[in-house]
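Hey,

Quick one before I head out. I ran the complex with S-adenosylmethionine overnight. Inputs first:
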Amino acid sequence: MSSSVEPGRVLLVGAGPGPVDLMTVRAMRAVKEAGALLYDALCSEEAIALAPPGCIRIQTGKRAGKPSMTQGEINRIMLRLARRGLRVVRLKGGDPSIFGRVGEEAAFLNAYGVATEVVPGVTAACAAAAQFGFPLTHRGQARRVVFTTARVQDGAMAHDWRSGADPEATLAVYMGAEAAPDLARALVAAGRTISTPVAVIERAGAADARLTTTSLAALTAGPITTHGGPVLIVVGEVAAAAQAQASNASDGFRERAS
Ligand SMILES: C[S@@+](CC[C@H](N)C(=O)[O-])C[C@H]1O[C@@H](n2cnc3c(N)ncnc32)[C@H](O)[C@@H]1O
């Protein structure tokens, strides 16, 4: 590293679920001022387009047939760019602290003396709840929300679902579409009532988001059919309130703004 160049900061930024009007003002500003932008597969074209001309743009996730980078490669690129004095933005779908590897990336960069800052984003569960009209907590019905995944690091099913048996817990299950039948069986085996309502939301936040309401019983029967978008599974009594009539708040916002 050249001694005359102050290392840049790395901002670990949540892009929200897709539409730019679900990004925070701080996240938008970070992208607009980026000297280098590393973005994952869930970031929308709209969000990436906010980067200024001349910004180095690097796609890190699987897109358009290109394979995703390893975490080690991403870390090394961020470090290299920061050492050039650039303002580096690592843009992630949703919120970076929820299944976003923010802890690993910050620890790596901090160990090399590069300062990091996290800019939060709207996570998929919050976007899904808002769009399809159900709460994640509800007095007398859901006293806690568990952000969880049906996968563990090696791709195998997570084993201990005892906390998921709590009838007052809403489970927001990320990366669970393929493992949905196993997940449902595991929850029932752990003691969750088989009739517990389930909402499956694909592409939450987007204008073409899809909702399927079902139950743990039905989920055990077979894999979820998807249309290729990211899928969130919400398990709990609150899911019964999910309504197929999606509210499209962003359209209303645009109409008023224009
Ligand atoms: C690596 S995790 C990242 C989660 C992200 N940090 C967040 O806070 O939403 C990716 C998983 O999140 C869920 N997900 C992300 N965006 C979604 C969306 N718009 N609709 C539904 N699920 C989504 C899916 O389960 C997807 O497989």
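Residues 251-258 have pLDDT under 50 and may be disordered.

Talk tomorrow,
K.
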